[in-house]
Amino acid sequence: MDTGILKSFLKFPISRKARNRVSKYLYEKSVRDLKLIMTLLVKDEEYLIEKNIRFHKEMGADGFIVTSHNSTDRTNEILEKLKKEGLVLEIIYETDPAYNQVKFVDRMIKLAKRKYKADWIINADADEFYYSKDLNLKKSIIKYKKTNVNVLKVDSTFYYPDNRDDFLSSPYFATRPFHEYAAQKLGIIDKPEFKGFIGSQGCTKVIHKTKGYRRIIIGNHDIKMRNKVCVEPAEITLYHYTIRNFNESIKKVERYKESLKLIGEGFGVHMRKLIKQYESGELKENYDKLYNEDMRKFLMEQGVVTIDRSIPNFLELICEKNKI
Predict the structure, then answer these.
(1) What are 69's strand-pairing partners?
(2) Could you tell me the pTM of the whole model?
(3) For a tag site, which of 46, 56, 270, 276 has the least CB within 10 Å?
(4) Which domain holds residue 109?
């Protein structure tokens, strides 16, 4: 039935039951009609890529555009399988040796806008899982339909490794860093192993409209928009598996080393520090100081690390459903 006709019914005195049914239909139609595309920039993510895409499909994403940057494991094979299923819309096989993240993501955004008529876009990496309390990202986004909001800033919750291989089944996340006053009181303010757990984590990412898009900022932390109006919605949380376990950390640092040769001075300070630790043999020692059972217990006692089963539980259902 025509949406305009249904809306006109709400202007007349009808029963509460009929009003609720019409309102529910109009709401569900507006959610269906919103086109949400996710872009993914990945390299050698055979463990994560299928779980990430199926997770976000169940969370409401309508399609995926993926750039595979010189992947050499089974990532490309998995992407082709998901493309045949209709989940992945486009795969871009990028062979540029340099990691030009802004250039690669910008290309996918424009493709999502022009070819696939996306209304909203999420730009992500394979280790990032966007979780809506409504269990549907479009339901969280649609709340701003009648406003001029075009950017949603989402806070990150970081995975705290417990050194299991199947890290996606782990429920530990660093959700509430120490306030500086609390850290001073506990006598940990100057201890290097606690540095990353003190103060704001300061890692927001953006979800944005395609209309008015100008340029993504490196790391997807911000965006240039025409007439930018931004809010931070509590309904969406980014669960970020930036550090998974020690073996995965080594792989990541080795990729950093490859990129450093090409990017040079533009390379991040944090990444340079990790490379230096790796080359000096300090990486394992520092990792063990940060991620061990005693440290985890202490951080949990202080409320810094908490048990959150949102991602493991949701993924368990998806993996069972899709036999992955």
Answers:
(1) 94
(2) 0.90
(3) 270
(4) 34-243+291-322
